[in-house]
Amino acid sequence: MNDSTWQTAVTHLPLWLRHQFPEAEPLEVQIGRFLASFSAQLDQLLAQPLAESNLPRTELALLLAAIFLASPGDSANWEPLVNQFLTLSPNKNALTDEACLDLVIAYGCGWRREVVPDSQDWNGRWPRAILALRVLVEGSLHQTFKLITPLLPPQYALFSGSLKTGSRLYSNLITLELLHNRCRCGKHKQGCKQVGEAYACGQTCCREEHQLGSWNPAVCSLQAFVAHSIRGNASSQLKTGALSTSMLYPLLTEDNGFTIDSVEFKVCGFCSEPAILQTIAQHKEPKSQGSTLYEGNSCPNCDTPASRQTTYHKVRKNWILIPYEYGGAYEMLDRWRCPRCRNLFPVTLGACPLCASATPQRKTTIWVYSPWQRHPDGEDDSR
Predict the structure, then answer these.
(1) Which of 74, 104, 351, 373 is most buried, by CB atoms within 10 Å?
(2) pLDDT(374) > 50
């Protein structure tokens, strides 16, 4: 592409952007609109009979995103910069509009380049690119909270305000930790061994999905990477085990008591599937599938009261709970775990009430659902 085409594009695009995104509009609103309408803007530009329409769509997309997200007034050498974006891309000229935008946002935040500390020009981190990353983070937080909320007790709320307010509450911190590759969640990748009170990596966190520098555009989009960082996976379904390894989880735990851990559940000895009942009769641990699992003093399906002599008590992993001190109904209690049938039972008992096996050598500490209001016709869960 000849120099005049690039020069005309570089001259015209800032004017066009100022017309589309007036300076009187709050910058955050401008960036949100820019991200949401990026492909439509490209379509509009390519439909105009101007010199920049001679640029291939990929190059025009990268140039448009760079001019908008770089600091205003920066006099970057745009053509080499666009070529640098292309070298960072796994697909070169076969990039989608979203992939082009992802590359520029990540690059502006310091991805795959040496950032000049405290630099106010395009050699430093671009403030607009940081705000764009925060928009992605905030959107992912909002989606995550929508997935979490139905799993919480009806009377419990993570925030006093709206989900949008809650998303804003954490977006700044997570964005800064993400782009600086300095997550403080305390989670580590498999293989990173603890040495005394520290870890072999020498960092507070070494999980790659918590560091923007680890993002690989050949593997996933930037939005998917952000979602994985925030809730442990990028799917539309919440996976509580993955959420417990996320950047968001320790923040919720510290502020709201939100906890994901193993919980004691009961297996109904009357309305579970026959194979489950047979397994329990054989003094073996029943599978969750086919079991009627419940908490509380009686089975919600058949209303049979729970009893230590007839009801199997099982560990259920990765359960969302709220402790007493944060307004929930769970407390940590000591239990024996039968070495034969794996049934959980109180440490006040000298043998398993289901199979009569002796107690093991070590106690198990587990969360137990123990609401303040207990019913006299059922089992007291704190015992």
Answers:
(1) 104
(2) no
Q: Band the pLDDT of 154: cuts 50, 70, 90.
A: confident
Residues 90, 98: contact at Cβ < 8 Å?
A: no
- Location of structure tokens 């911190």: 173
CB 170 within 8 A of CB 256: no
Say what the pLDDT of residue 184 is.
85
Alpha helices for the chain (secondary structure H): 3-20, 27-36, 38-46, 57-69, 78-88, 97-108, 127-148, 163-179, 222-231, 240-243, 249-256, 274-281
Residue-wise pLDDT tens digits, 190-243: 888 888 888 888 888 888 999 999 999 999 999 999 999 999 999 989 999 999
Mean pLDDT of all residues in 128-135: 97
Average pLDDT score over the chain: 89
Read off the tokens for 165.
């307010």
The answer to whether 41 and 65 have CB atoms below 8 angstroms apart is: no
Contacts of 85 (CB under 8 A, 6+ apart): 62, 66, 100, 103, 104, 107
Cβ neighbors of 348 (< 8 A, separation 6 or more) are 383
Q: How far is CA 163 from CA 30, 142, 220, 362, in A?
A: 22, 6, 26, 43
